[in-house]
């Protein structure tokens, strides 16, 4: 497998058959055998007779959670969507399908994932294993709450079905289990029906940390809440923030916002995207101050112009993949050449 094609960071290793692999934080770099099965059955085969094995999704975990001491099984080629029931919103996918894949395929069809972390370039397997949280954790809980069931390959290779009613203890231990109970091969998720792909956003200015906490506590009933904290502010302004609260916009909200706006705009509408990785030299006091000033000014301008209701297409808030390896519902092959 060519190192350049891998998610996360990989380099050649002095150990034949192994490569140096790291997580998103680039440290530590560990020598491991990297396997990339193309089918769930192939993944199971790799587990039999091996120890020191761990599954790896998109490699977005910051530390070394997705690196096996002996072998690492990548799920990036397990990227097929299996079935979808529009009546129930139930979607069954292989573990290597990413949240970005699901949003690209289903947001235009009026479905969203109720729990989405800060990057959409994570796999369903990784999201279940870390029970990732979104900006609605206080209301809706973690990713596990939208998981109906999954098929798990145990370390010995046995495959078991798990849900809240079948192998329930194993099901619960695997949600947030960081891959230690076995390898998730495929999962059934429950998607959230949405009327539009827009968010109705309320931006509040908080002059210091205490005010920001008050605003967040006051907005606890909002579906989504997040604070953009100016960590460069000092003295009485320490912790000053912009607190964003948001709800999924209804058809009525979108018509009020602008009848010419499509309820499900094309992703191309959001031309600007923020890279997931900034070069180190770009992150300094001056650039951070400039960025914070721009964010505050933009928020205040929007507030002045349109009250507290700002329309935001959901997809435009996520970053673009630096690896460019996202697959689609119809993907028949994957970008990792094992
Ligand atoms: C920019 C950025 C923003 C982030 N924002 C958030 C956030 O807002 N909220 C949040 O909760 N997290 C956040 N994270 C962390 C990220 O969501 C988690 O680390 C997630 O688990 C990464 O998924 P992955 O597919 O990359 O998994 P990996 O990093 O490859 O693996 C993570 C863990 O999942 C296990 N695993 C992966 N696939 C499987 C499988 N098929 N079966 C069993 N175990 C498996 C691995 O063994 C490992 O323990 C962020 C990360 C980044 C880089």
Please, could you describe this protein's structure?
- Helices cover 21% and strands 25% of the residues.
- The chain is built from 8 helices and 16 strands.
- The termini are close together.
- The strands form 4 sheets. A 5-stranded mixed β-sheet has the order 1-2-3-5-4, covered by helices on one side. A 5-stranded antiparallel β-sheet has the order 6-7-11-9-10.
- It folds into 3 domains: 72 residues, Uridine Diphospho-n-acetylenolpyruvylglucosamine Reductase, domain 2; 113 residues, Uridine Diphospho-n-acetylenolpyruvylglucosamine Reductase, domain 3; 120 residues, no CATH class.
- It binds flavin-adenine dinucleotide.
- Flavin-adenine dinucleotide binds next to strand 4, helix 3 and strand 11.
Give a quick summary of the entry.
The chain is 21% helix and 25% strand. With 338 residues, the chain is an alpha+beta fold.
Number of helices: 8
What is the succession of H and E elements?
Answer: EEEHEEEEHEHHEEHEEEHEEHHE
Radius of gyration: 21 Å
Q: What's the count of strands?
A: 16
- The share of residues in extended strands comes to 15-25%
* Helical coverage, percent range: 10-25%
Distance between the termini: 4 Å
Walk across the major sheet and give the strand order.
Answer: 1-2-3-5-4
User: How many structural domains are formed by the residues?
Assistant: 3
The computed structural class is alpha+beta
Average pLDDT figure:
84
Low-pLDDT residue intervals, each spanning 5 or more residues? 1-5, 303-310, 316-338
Which compounds are bound in this model?
flavin-adenine dinucleotide
